[in-house]
Specification:
Blueprint lengths: L7 H5 L6 E8 L5 E5 L3 E6 L13 E7 L2 E7 H4 L13 E7 L2 E7 L1 E9 L16 E7 L2 E6 L1 H9 L7 H4 L10 E5 L3 H13 L3 E5 L2 H12 L10 E4 L8 H10 L8 E5 L7 H6 L4 E4 L3 H12 L7
Parallel strand pairs: 2-10, 5-7, 11-12, 11-13, 13-14, 14-15
Antiparallel strand pairs: 1-2, 1-8, 3-6, 4-5, 6-7, 9-10
């Protein structure tokens, strides 16, 4: 299965083209689920797992993979479905890296990798319990594919993010730029984390779920008056339905009424995107998820006119 992850350089060239690749898999039924390939390090057959009696119930065990001890999470169990049999060789582990951590995701089978436009990805329908763990859906060969909010799965294990430290909050000064930020992220967990940190800093949030909504909202505000008098900065995820963060950033730069906005790309893909790719899309900063203090330093530095934050 590791051959599925060849040609990483080719995938990197999709940046700014509003495209993504998804790894498709199942969790014990015919229903297809997906995760962005950029979060995936490797796919392997399930090795022997050592159980940890005190671990969270969705952690099926730990395994030594490439010389490192990695926790293996049962994705089906996390979504409220029957656990996946973890017999050695009878299922698969997707080794992932996001939110500054490495974890294995136990799945029943791996299907293939598909290449799509972000505008083919749509918000999930409402009505079932597992919807709260989905960031988006798409159609492949007339079959529904559900894209999992793995950040929410990880939060089940690690718990909520900590608060902004008191030492940073004590440095907040009056004045400076507009204390209002537009936040774009398709993950409910990420939106909640960002809004909580901004609120602690006395910064109001305008929250949207994807890049298309963000652009529409910014254009709506700009039609009412100078955007810099209404929004201090934009904090955007990279992976989002309808329009990704790179396309949002590059579109902002092309819109005369928006072009001076300060854009921070804030992504769980911490090991993949570097400053060069961020600059290519016209963004000012890249910030890996999720450290409340690092976010606070960037936001406060910019809002208070500190050029070093830019």
């Amino acid at each position: 299965m590791s051959s599925l992850l060849d040609d990483v350089d080719r995938r990197t060239q999709m940046v700014g083209q509003n495209r993504l690749e998804l790894l498709l898999f199942t969790l014990g039924s015919r229903q297809l689920f997906a995760i962005n390939v950029f979060k995936v390090r490797e796919v392997i057959t399930c090795p022997a797992l050592n159980r940890l009696p005190s671990a969270h119930p969705i952690i099926r065990g730990v395994a030594t993979l490439r010389g490192k001890t990695v926790s293996v999470v049962d994705l089906a169990q996390a979504l409220g479905m029957p656990p996946i049999p973890s017999r050695e060789g009878g299922s698969f582990v997707i080794l992932t890296e996001f939110n500054r951590s490495v974890q294995g995701l136990l799945v029943a089978s791996v299907d293939r990798i598909i290449n799509l436009n972000w505008d083919q990805i749509h918000p999930p329908p409402r009505g079932t319990h597992k919807d709260s763990f989905l960031t988006a859906v798409t159609q492949v060969d007339n079959r529904l594919v559900e894209i999992i909010d793995v950040e929410k799965v990880l939060e089940m294990i690690t718990g909520p993010a900590r608060d902004v430290s008191d030492s940073l909050l004590s440095n907040i000064q009056e004045g400076g730029r507009v204390r209002r930020a537009l936040v774009a992220d398709d993950s409910a967990v990420a939106r909640r984390q960002i809004v909580r940190a901004l609120t602690q800093m006395g910064v109001e949030s305008v929250v949207v779920n994807d890049g298309r909504q963000a652009l529409d909202k910014l254009l709506e505000l700009a039609a009412q008056g100078p955007i810099e008098q209404q929004i201090g900065l934009v904090i955007s995820d990279i992976e989002m339905p309808e329009m990704d963060g790179y396309t949002l950033s590059s579109t902002i730069r092309k819109e005369p009424a928006l072009s001076r906005l300060h854009v921070v790309l804030h992504s769980s893909l911490s090991g993949t995107f570097n400053e060069t790719l961020v600059r290519r899309a016209g963004a000012d900063r890249f910030l890996p998820k999720f450290s409340p203090d690092e976010l606070a330093e960037v936001v406060l530095g910019y809002l208070q006119g500190d050029d070093a934050a830019q």
